[in-house]
Amino acid sequence: MMESTDFPFLNHEFDYTHLLNLFQDAENLGGAGGGNFSGPFKRQRTSEETSEDDEVGGDSFEAAADGSTLREVLASFMLIEEKAREDNEKWAFDFQEEKSLFDLNPRKRAPSINDYYQTQLDSYCIDQLSESPARRSASLAAAGATMVVSADNSPKGDRGERSGNPTRRLWVKDRSKDWWEQVNSPNFPDSEFKRAFRMSRATFNLICDELDPAITKKNTTLREAIPVHQRVAVCIWRLATGEPLRLVSKKFGLGISTCHKLVLEVCNAIRDILLPKFVQWPGDDRLNLIKSEFEALSGIPNIGGSMYTTHIPIIAPKSGVSAYYNKRHTERNQKTSYSVTVQGVMDHRGVFTDVSIGWPGSYSDDQVLERSTLFKKASSGLLQDTFVAGNTGYPLMDWVLVPYSHKNLTWTQHAFNEKLEEALNVSKEAFCRLKGRWACLQKRTEVKLQDLPVILGACCVLHNVCEIKGEEVGPELRFEVLDDEVIPENSIRGSPRTAQARDQIAHNIFHHGHGTAFL
């Protein structure tokens, strides 16, 4: 039997024995007349009291009857208290026994803890007026321990399942995964899969295989890890649709914070693993191929890439608001606009070979160029005998070839601008496909400003993967890029050597007939 000191409530009992003994002594001392005490506490009765007793008559009998009734009541109290004490000791023993069983199975606590607390709540609501605290505690502990013992006796493969139904846990909310399970099924049509994720299942599986070492998580005793394919799918779906996280959460049956964490986690893995593989400046052989393709397209030699800068709308930041204020878009849209920039250099297929992300939207194209890594590389001599075609927002430099922008152009200059435009359209169309494929770039995003470059970089890398794998963008996804071009204010001095080379190229185009439609 358990010691009462282990359970304080067992000590809260009332002893009625001394009261019964007291009344028994009083009866023996008072005699049949009852009511008067003898001994040192006896008081002499007055004549008036004696006469009153004679007049009333029967008081002695009633007093004796009252004494007998009181003894019976006290005896009942003692029996009840004894029964309650025995019950409390039994409940305390059961409680300690079941608690020991519960403690001996720590690995089984998780599957039963939710049912334990539910039982506690139900018992409190139903039994709080009819049962003592000891009985309720013992019953609840027994219910929790019974679940633990049942889990011990179940087969190892059925852990966490009872009668075919998954055991719910306190930290996992039950959400529907029907949509994702349907999409992830091998029987799901590839055309529908591509409409949902902007790529075929083969390309999607390639990305999952590449990222698997970086984002795979192990199962724990608390919960099962989210599979790699679902992790990647959450990220790509979020980038492709631009839907709020609460809608992404409903689609995949995951928590909102979990989806947000997965998007950033996968985007960081894309930056670390896929960026070096799929976004890199071409080597000599590859560069010569790109030059020949651009020359066949435009008739202009030595073009190693087509450059364009676009703006991504953002919510007004908490600090440095003026730096991100986009005056041109505000005037055009008649609505206050804030943005960050993405500068990209494309090859002849529209694949990024260089990208510069995250500069404030108040910067002009030439200011973004000055701060890019490409500018530093070119200044160190990386782009010898190679031009990067740019629009009038860039300055004419030793390695940047731009259209004529002054007034009263000659026919030769018009012809040159027309042919250079064909090369520039490669990068502009690529940005149209980029924003059409990843709708999160079309509107203001809820991502924090410090996390935005990682998101934008992941979009550029995934764009390259899709372009290299031949994933086409349907006409329903086409998005027009409307970024105003502004002639630079001589922030970088023009190159006389490149100006002379441009004049020579323009002369050759006009006089040797490279298919210009200007005349």
Automatic annotation (TrEMBL):
Its main location: nucleus. InterPro entries: HARBI1-like, HARBI1_dom. Its cofactor is a divalent metal cation. Residues 308-464 form the DDE Tnp4 domain. GO terms for cellular component: nucleus. Residues 33-62, 148-168 are annotated as: Disordered. One of its GO terms (molecular function) is metal ion binding. Belongs to the HARBI1 family. This is Protein ANTAGONIST OF LIKE HETEROCHROMATIN PROTEIN 1-like. The gene is LOC116196732.
